[in-house]
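ok so I'm stuck.
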Amino acid sequence: MAKIDAFFKLMFEQGASDLHLVSGQQPIVRLHGEMERIKYKVLEGDELKAMLYEIAPEIKIKQFEETGDVDFGYEVPNMARFRANFFNQRNGCAAVFRLIPSKVLSAEDLGLPPILTQSAMYKKGLVLVTGPTGSGKSTTLAAIIDHANKHRHDHIITVEDPIEFVHQSAGCLVNHREIGRHTKSFAAALRGALRQDPDIILVGEMRDLETISLAIEAAATGHLVFGTLHTINAAKTVDRVIEVFPSEEQSQIRNTLASSLKLVVAQNLFKRIDKKGRCAALEIMVCTSAISNLIRDNKTFQIPSIIQTGKKQGMASLDDAIMEQLNKKWISAEEAFDKCVDKAKFLPFLKETPADYFG
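replied:
not stuck anymore, here's the structure
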């Protein structure tokens, strides 16, 4: 048992989402969204480095020493997997670990709307789950892949950095590939995937032009592709995908995207005030013919109004999703106001107007 595993055990038992180990600081966990110090001595640089190197593969240690940053996955048997990130900072080395539950939560466990499980059964197209870091994108995608794995008889390939949720093959054959260990890059893995007879491809992060281009190509040529982006809403997601391409290619990409995009889910996590834990508010854009036409005609600024009137198709605006959680008294008015789009709509729920609000 590695020395660091004691921290993971504590983290797991408390229900913490993240563990921060920093030279010159006490260990800190993120519990229900809040940072809390662990009653432990201040970590010295050499001690922490030895602790971190004990669990890191040799290739990752080499990469960290060359670049100052590295990501990889680490598993404590019979407990959980952890996504690790090592980095250097002013006082020495540091690391952040995100807990990935060993049990994949189902769509029902998470209370996801039916349109998300329906997306697991699409024959082809592009489905994007977006949101800021730590908003639960991986958990939502894992639930969708889990549904496909249980209800389809196909080949699923996941490409991640690092591998997070591990799916045991059920109805589907599932192959997991990790950047840096099983393949050189997202783009290299996607190029390879097209020759590996996949039906469903999960791209852990669509972070550059080549990866986005290959993902769209795969979706347009008969594969079901799931991916993530760090964007705040559906309209911004479409803009982000298009704007990564050179201006002379954007018209063609708009046409391809309009045909291949099926669903965009923009996700935000909120701290529960009725009990311990967090809950998600989801903006959902279904790529109907009206949405496709807006993408094709470069009128994405009109997407929010289509989402607002598309409830029968399973769509929901972020503000409506936040309002639903607020009306249930699950979340605070202050956090709802902070993360909503239309501030004026949520202003009446606040006890006082924030000093930085000038609406």
